[in-house]
Amino acid sequence: QVQLVESGGGSVPAGGSLRLSCAASGFDFGTQSMAWFRQNSGKEREGVASISPDGSWASYGASVKGRLLISRDSAKKTLYLQMNSLKPEDTAMYYCATRPFYGTWDNSFLDFRNWGQGTQVTVSS
């Protein structure tokens, strides 16, 4: 079965950095686009960053461009999110998810699935 396990969250002061990891198993990692989402309290789930199966394409939400970097390691079957210059507004549960790739990059955050359990990021002011 598909399994996604997020880790690496924690509490940091504003301006700090974290690197989140998403360990993937139970599917062909190399055929799936991956993405990070976040959700804080009663807000809607928000797309943060996405990446194509081979890492050649990536998309970012406007609020995180220039501060966060998505990457993946095919050998480790792991997705990463390097988060720098963190702001209190980045406080949220962060989730990873998958989406089949059909040969053309889709820069939307639609149709991702197989959500992990999430890892909490808290940024203090």
Estimated helix fraction: under 10%
- N-to-C SSE string, H for helix and E for strand: EEEEEEEEEE
How large is the radius of gyration? 14 Å
Residue runs with pLDDT of under 50 for 5 or more positions: none
Categorize the overall geometry: globular
Strand content: over 45%
Q: Describe the main β-sheet briefly.
A: 6 strands, mixed
Distance from first to last alpha carbon: 40 Å
Mean pLDDT: 96
Strand line-up in the sheet with most strands: 2-10-9-4-5-6
Annotation field: number of helices: 0
- Got a strand count? 10
Task: Supply the key terms.
mainly beta, six-stranded mixed β-sheet, 10 strands, 0% helix
How does this model look, in words?
This protein has 125 residues and is mostly beta strands. Helix content is 0%, strand content 49%. It has no helices and ten strands. The chain has strands at residues 3-7, 10-13, 18-25, 32-39, 46-51, 58-60, 68-73, 78-83, 92-100, 119-124. A six-stranded mixed sheet has the order 2-10-9-4-5-6, with no helix packed on it. Strand 5 and strand 6 form a beta hairpin. It is globular and about 40 Å long.
Please give the structural blueprint:
Blueprint lengths: L2 E5 L2 E4 L4 E8 L6 E8 L6 E6 L6 E3 L7 E6 L4 E6 L8 E9 L18 E6 L1
Parallel strand pairs: 2-10
Antiparallel strand pairs: 1-3, 3-8, 4-5, 4-9, 5-6, 7-8, 9-10
Question: In a few lines, what is going on in this structure?
Answer:
With 125 residues, the protein is mostly beta strands.
